[in-house]
Amino acid sequence: MSKETILIVDDEEDILELIKFNLKGEGYNILQAMTGEEAIKIAKQSGPDLMVLDLMLPGIDGLEVTRYMKNNNTTMHIPIVMLTAKGEESDIVAGLELGANDYISKPFSPRELTARIRAILRRRRENGGEAPVRVRQEGDMVIDRAKHQVTIEGKIIELTLSEFELLSFLAEKKGWVFTRGQIVDAIHGENYAVTERSIDVIIVGLRKKLGAYSSCIETVRGVGYRFKE
């Protein structure tokens, strides 16, 4: 089986070369860009299997690239791993809200980055092989994994990738209570270094978009969240 193609986006040439060297060593095909504009153009033209995206880019920054990618039908399903400055929690939370799949802080271990990429691509392949799963709530809200969309009374609700995956995960296991850590592992994979606040922020945004159906997601105080039976 041929290896997947990864688009690396960073304006620092030494970091670009470091990531490229390690991923090529794993057999991945590599595309590269040094600006946000170039990244969007390549993503639309070549459709990589994953993007490694530095948030601190000249011109269009990484958050704007993520926003564009996740709101464009051609690129919205491309997983994104963000490269962030250490301690920039606000950027991390913003990126996750926009639909990024994972992040790693600089300076980073190339082995850790490679492991996270491998895990995301493995889940992507596995999800692609699943039979479509459709979950209904009271006959009005439909979560359609095959179409990767949520509708309420026939109207499409625009969700980020993280919001969709979180809602799907909880809805498929109605009544089960999950900790924030379990939710992170389910939608992003093991060893995903994310704060509890990040999951809470995703939940807040999701509830706002669900409107009257926000009560479907219940907070279990001191434990986590569940989808109401």
UniProtKB/TrEMBL annotation:
Boundaries of every OmpR/PhoB-type domain copy: 133-229
Residue intervals of the Response regulatory domain: 5-121
A Pfam entry, by short name: Response_reg
Annotated region of DNA binding: 133-229
Keywords assigned: DNA-binding, Phosphoprotein, Transcription, Transcription regulation, Two-component regulatory system
Transcription as UniProt keyword: yes
UniProt keyword Oxidoreductase, yes or no: no
4-aspartylphosphate, modified sites: 54
One GO-annotated biological process of the protein: regulation of DNA-templated transcription
Superkingdom: Bacteria
GO molecular function terms noted in the UniProt entry: phosphorelay response regulator activity; transcription cis-regulatory region binding
Gene Ontology cellular component annotations, sorted alphabetically: cytosol; protein-DNA complex
Listed name of the protein: Response regulator with CheY-like receiver domain and winged-helix DNA-binding domain
